[in-house]
Amino acid sequence: MDSIKSLQVRRTLHQALSLGMIIVSALIIWKGLMCITGTESPVVVVLSESMEPGFRRGDILFLHMSRDPIRAGEIVVYNVDGRDIPIVHRVIKVHERRDTGEVDILTKGDNNDDDDISLYAGQPWLQRHHIMGRAVGFLPYVGWATIIMTEKPFIKYILIGVLGLLCITSKD
C-alpha cells in the first residue's frame, strides 16, 4: 500500500515538475526574444481595424528595435504614459531637432482620417522612448486566440483548467 502511495506522489511530483519546465521554457524563450529583438514586447496583436487593409484585427506583428533612424512610412508600435494598450500605426512625419538630435514622430492609422495627436496624452509628438518596436513581419489572424481570451475571460479560465487537468491526469 505504501509503495502505491509513493508511486502516486512520485507521479504527481513528476507531472508538477513537467508543468513547471514548460512554463520556465516559455519564459526563457520570451526573454531570449526580448534580447534578440531589442524590445520588451517582441510580439503584439493588432486589436483594432485602424491599420486595414494592411493589417487586420487579430494579426500578430513581430517587432524589432534598432538604433537606425525612424523613417516616415514605417509601422511602429508605441505606448504613451497613461495608456495600458500599445498602438500599432504608421509613421507619417518625422521631425529631427538639429540642436539636440532628438526626433519627434507623428503617427496615423492607415484606416483613420486623422493623425494620432489626440492619442498622445497631451503631447504634440511621440519621442523615441515611446516607440516599443518596428513591425518586421506578421502572421494573419493568429492573434484571434488572444483577443477572444481577453474579451471573454471565462474561455481563458476554461482553457487553463483543461490544460491543467490534462497535465495532472496524463499517464506520462
List the helices and strands and how they pair.
Blueprint: H1 2-37, E1 43-45, E2 60-64, E3 75-78, E4 87-96, E5 103-108, E6 126-127, E7 131-139, H2 144-151, H3 153-169
Antiparallel strand pairs: 1-2, 2-7, 3-4, 3-7, 4-5, 5-6
Helix pairs in contact: 2-3
Walkthrough of the structure:
It is a single chain. The chain is of the alpha+beta class and 172 residues long. The chain folds into two domains: 2-37 and 154-169, no CATH class; 43-141, Umud Fragment, subunit A (Ribbon). 35% of the residues lie in helices and 23% in strands. The protein has helices at residues 2-37, 144-151, 153-169; strands spanning 43-45, 60-64, 75-78, 87-96, 103-108, 126-127, 131-139. It is elongated and about 80 Å long. It has three helices and seven strands; from the N terminus they run H-E-E-E-E-E-E-E-H-H. Strand 4 and strand 5 form a beta hairpin. The chain has a seven-stranded antiparallel sheet. The chain crosses the membrane at residues 12-33. Keywords: Endoplasmic reticulum, Hydrolase, Membrane, Protease, Signal-anchor, Transmembrane, Transmembrane helix. Residues 33-136 form the Peptidase S24/S26A/S26B/S26C domain. It catalyses: Cleavage of hydrophobic, N-terminal signal or leader sequences from secreted and periplasmic proteins.
